[in-house]
Write a structure and sequence with these properties.
2 strands, 3 helices, mainly alpha, 128 residues
């Protein structure tokens, strides 16, 4: 007799309240363009001061660098979450780990009560 499959222990990665979809949002091409533009502006901004450009141009370049840092940072966070959602097929133990990971402990605590066990006894030291 086959046993019923345990519930999936892997929750989908959410983005703005919905499961993350790889087809939506910025891709690597957008990110590479942002990084290239950011490097260009980081080099150009101090050179604009050395070359004695008008102060308003240097100021605009400085604010452009700050704004692009914000946008690029958000893009890399989105791309990292996208990679994480692809890798969440199952839990992976670090190579040098001798103990269970937090994720494995969470999975075990979810599966045990569903197998008919009552779970851990309440802690007697906690007072109400």
């Amino acid at each position: 007799m086959t046993s019923p499959e345990p519930p999936p222990s892997v929750r989908p990665v959410e983005y703005k309240g919905e499961p993350l979809d790889a087809e939506r949002g910025p891709g690597l091409g957008c990110f590479r363009f942002q990084v290239g533009l950011l490097v260009f502006l980081i080099v150009l901004t101090p050179l604009s001061v050395v070359w004695d450009w008008p102060p308003i141009v240097s100021t605009i370049l400085l604010f452009a660098v700050i704004a692009l840092l914000l946008v690029t940072g958000q893009t890399i966070i989105f791309l990292m979450r996208l990679v994480a959602s692809d890798r969440r097929e199952g839990r992976r133990r670090p190579l040098a780990s001798q103990t269970r990971t937090v994720g494995e402990l969470e999975d075990q605590s979810r599966v045990e009560p569903e197998q008919g066990e009552q779970g851990p006894p309440p802690d007697a030291s906690v007072r109400e």
